[in-house]
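Weekly modeling sync, notes
Attendees: S.R. (lead), two postdocs, one rotation student

Agenda item 3: backlog of single-chain predictions. S.R. asked that every request posted to the team notebook include the full sequence so nobody has to chase files. The rotation student volunteered to paste the first one in as an example of the format we agreed on. Action items at the bottom.

Example entry:
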Amino acid sequence: MPLIIVLVLIIGIAVAVITVFIMKSVLAPKKLATVANFQKQGKHNSAIRIAKQILEKEPRNAEAHYLLAGSYKAEHKSEIALMELKKVNELGSFGGYCKENEFRLIIAELYEQFNQPEEALKEYILLIKLMPVMGEYYFRAGKLFENRNKADKAAQYYRKAIQLTPRLSYAHYSLGYILFKAKKNVEAKSEFEAALKYKADLYAAHFYLGKLQKNNHDYIPALLSFEKASRDQEYKVKALVERGACYMSLKSFDKAIIELERGIKLTSNASSPETLYARYFLAACHENERDFESAIDQWEEIYAKKPNFRDVAEKLSQYQELRSDDKMKDYLTSSTLEFQEICKALTGTMALNITELSDINNGCQIIAVDGDTKWRGTRKMPKLIWYLRIPEMVPDTTVRAIHEKMKALSVTRSIIVVSTNFSRKAQEYAESRPIDLIGKELLQKELKKVDFKVINQAMKIKK
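Predicted structure, as returned to the notebook:
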């Protein structure tokens, strides 16, 4: 009798175990299907609740962890979603609702979101092994290599991405950018053009293509590229500054001023490199247009933000006389006719008589002879004088140019008068030749001898 009871108990327990197993085998998939259906319907709170119920009984159910992560992610709880996906990775069980390629793509993106590039890269490498024909995965891995300053490795992955998916515009752009930084301009241009072929509104590619065109002095195409780049907020100010620089190279200073002023108005950071360069170029435009007051205003704005920016401190020092020396200001800012009268007066202070006067680039050319020769019959030797209004230090090329002009005109002596100073090479070249150099300080002294009332009267007569 006891033996029969024991047998019945054993059979009952076995039936119970088998029943539970069968119930789990039948009901668990049904519950997983319910979770998946709730997700499709956007009922993520219900999906989360049921997924948790499954995991209470089956903590190693990889599919439940995966589905739970999906609902958390949909509810913008990405950090918790990543934790669930890490558990799936630990379990290493894939199939059913948890397809390995989908899982690895999602976890890689979350690793990137939470600034874990090393972990993300591992996932993309695994994805490449799973799906070696997917160019997108090579591109993403390349991006992570590029962010780690491994440009050569990144370029390899970008090239593979392009080989597999030629229409992948971002891969073309990213490869082009690496080539651009490596100064491989021909290859970079080709990649930027390919990127734009497949995605015409890829504004970063327009911007860097414009940079290449500008560096190659192709200013008209560059202006068009920068105009397209300026449609994107990220590149708008940069593109306007570059357009201004193009117009400066074309000597269209009025158009350059318009572009640069637009860039300054749109900037949100007064200390950014783009803003500082916009002001610097704008000052250069005003300087070339002889609007020195406006140029000084821009230099002062730059100096207030970054005193050591390029040669701004030197420029402010160079032009500080404008605010205290009216005669120097007139020399620099006067009209062409007024400037000629000033040059005539300066020539008179040197006791020279003018025989010929003409305009030259950025100045005035005068040929004059000595006016106080003591001996009758003595031949008066002509002198060639250049009065220049150029904003930068005078290079030796200018001194060499006047020396060549002397030979052409058969003049034995010359003088260069400037409102700045001369470079060391210019001074060394002039030392062994019959060329006198008059810089800013000497010019100021000579200007003090000039009667500007006489000049004003002369201008009234001409008018």
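Discussion: group reviewed the output briefly. Strands lie at 352-360, 363-370, 382-388, 413-418, 435-438.
Action items: rotation student to repeat for the remaining queue; S.R. to check formatting next week.
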